[in-house]
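Appendix B. Chain record.
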Amino acid sequence: MSDVINLRRERKRRKSVEDAKDAETNRRLFGRTKEQKMADSLEKQRLKTLLDGKKIFSLKDDGS
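Structure tokens predicted for this chain:
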């Protein structure tokens, strides 16, 4: 026969586990220092300018 469980406790336990997962996700997304955010921003900007510099435009796109 199966064990009897308290549904209220089980709901609280599941909510606690789910909240812990959400907290971990938020720490990964938002728990960065200002320097880390700035470094990521500069890296994205560097890659964008590098990519833009390598674009090849055709005569149709040039408007000439």
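Further analysis of this model is presented in Appendix C.
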